[in-house]
Amino acid sequence: MAQKEEQEKAKKDTGSSKFKWTYVILVVGILLAVGATLTGTAIITKKLIQEGIRDASVNGTASAEKKSHKKQKMDPPEYFVLNPVFVTNLQDKNKQRYLQINVQVMARDSEAIEAVKLHMPVIRNNLTLLFSSKNSKELNNRSGIEKLREETLSEIHKILMENLGREGIEEVYFTSFVIQ
Fold first, then answer.
1. DSSP conformational letter for 30
2. How many C-beta atoms surround the C-beta of residue 155 within 10 A?
């Protein structure tokens, strides 16, 4: 009887021992799998970050361009014509010259377009003063016209900042430009 009890005890110890080793092997296997996953993720992340840094250094302001491109995809542009066409005298000393410009603004925000409509008298006044302060020599080439376009956008931005609290308008376009 004592021998049977010892044999049963030995079987229990062996079974218990097998269970312990199985448990240890299972835990070690899980830890190795988790470790391998984390290591792989770290390596891939590091490579992606390095690629991003390399792309940004090659492309200059790549991330800023991507952000602005995403913004452009989200909101479609709205255009508004500043009617009637602007007609002003130029500051030429030798001859009487006139400037006729058709101006359109572009925004991706309906509120900005509404602000332009609301403050149209101020915008038209300031742009008329700006246009009439120029002479034909300043506006006889593309760079002079581009400079005037930038000044026009800046003038509109000033008015909207005072009244709307932000610039709102992204671009100004001259859809007709005549010096006579």
1. H
2. 17
User: Which residue matches tokens 């500043």?
Assistant: 82
According to DSSP, residue 77 is labeled: -
Tally the residues of the chain. 180
Query: What is the token pair recorded at 114?
Result: 């509404």
> What gap in Å lies between CA 103 and CA 84, rounded to an integer?
9
Distance CA 167, CA 153 (A): 9
Longest dimension (CA), the chain: 133
Under 8 Å CB-to-CB from 93, ≥6 apart: which residues?
Answer: none
The 8-class DSSP code of residue 134 comes to: -
Whole-structure pTM value:
0.59
Q: What is the pLDDT of residues 84-133, one digit of tens each?
A: 999 999 988 888 999 999 999 999 989 999 999 999 999 999 999 999 99
What is the rounded CA–CA span in Å between residue 80 and residue 83? 9
Listed in sequence order, the residues at least 6 apart from 86 whose beta carbon sits closer than 8 Å to its beta carbon are 99, 100, 101, 102, 103, 124, 127, 128, 131
Give how far the C-alpha of residue 36 lies from the chain's centroid of Cα atoms, to the nearest Å: 37
Q: Is 115 left (phi over 0), alpha (psi -120 to 50) or beta?
A: alpha
Which bin fits 175, alpha (ψ -120 to 50), beta or left (φ > 0)? alpha
